[in-house]
C-alpha cells in the first residue's frame, strides 16, 4: 500500500519531535529536516544511505534544535507540552494511536504562541534544516528532494480524496 511509508513517517515524526510545534512547521518547509532526523530508523529515508557519522551529526543537530525551540516556550507552554507528551505516551502504552500527536495542531493551538515565538521557532527550524542538509552529499540531497516530492504528492492525493468537513 502506498500510504504505509507515509503513515510510518508521520508516526515516527510524532514520536521524535513531540516538542516541536507542527503549527509552525506548516508555515515552513521543514520536511527535509523531518526526513533526515529519522535517518536512524527504518522508512523511506533509509534509502539516503547515511553513514554512522552522518546519522550521529544529524541527531545532534536535531537535539540542539529541539532544545533551542523548547527555550522559546514560556513555563506555562512547557507545562502544556509536557502534559500532552505524557498523554500521548500513555495512549501508546495502552496500544492506542495518539491522534493529537499525528498532526499536533490542536495541542499547539492551545499553546497560543506569539508571533515572535513563531518567528523564532521558524528561524531555528530553517537553520536546523540547512545544517542537516549540509551533512549530506550531493547525491543524498538529490534523493532527499525526490523523497520530499513523493511525500508531498502522496499528501496532496490524500488531501484531495478527503471529504470536506462541511459534507
UniProtKB/TrEMBL annotation:
Region (Disordered): 76-134
Keywords: Signal
Biased composition (Low complexity): 86-101
MF-aspect GO terms: unfolded protein binding
InterPro entries attached to this UniProt entry: Cpx_auxiliary_protein
Residues in the signal sequence: 1-26
Any one GO CC term of the record: outer membrane-bounded periplasmic space
Protein name: P pilus assembly/Cpx signaling pathway, periplasmic inhibitor/zinc-resistance associated protein
Amino acid at each position: 500500500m502506498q500510504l504505509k511509508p507515509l503513515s510510518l513517517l508521520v508516526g515516527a515524526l510524532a514520536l521524535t519531535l513531540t516538542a516541536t510545534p507542527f503549527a509552525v512547521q506548516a508555515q515552513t518547509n521543514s520536511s527535509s529536516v523531518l526526513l533526515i532526523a529519522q535517518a536512524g530508523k527504518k522508512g523511506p529515508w533509509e534509502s539516503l544511505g547515511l553513514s554512522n557519522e552522518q546519522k550521529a551529526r544529524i541527531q545532534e543537530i536535531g537535539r540542539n534544535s529541539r532544545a533551542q525551540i523548547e527555550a522559546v516556550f514560556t513555563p506555562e507552554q512547557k507545562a502544556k507540552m509536557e502534559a500532552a507528551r505524557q498523554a500521548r505516551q500513555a495512549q501508546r502504552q495502552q496500544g492506542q494511536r495518539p491522534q493529537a500527536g499525528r498532526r499536533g495542531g490542536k495541542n499547539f493551538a492551545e499553546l497560543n504562541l506569539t508571533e515572535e515565538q513563531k518567528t523564532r521557532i521558524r528561524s531555528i527550524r530553517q537553520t536546523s534544516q540547512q545544517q542537516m542538509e549540509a551533512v549530506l552529499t550531493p547525491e543524498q540531497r538529490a534523493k532527499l528532494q525526490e523523497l520530499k516530492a513523493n511525500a508531498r504528492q502522496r499528501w496532496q492525493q490524500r488531501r484531495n480524496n478527503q471529504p470536506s468537513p462541511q459534507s
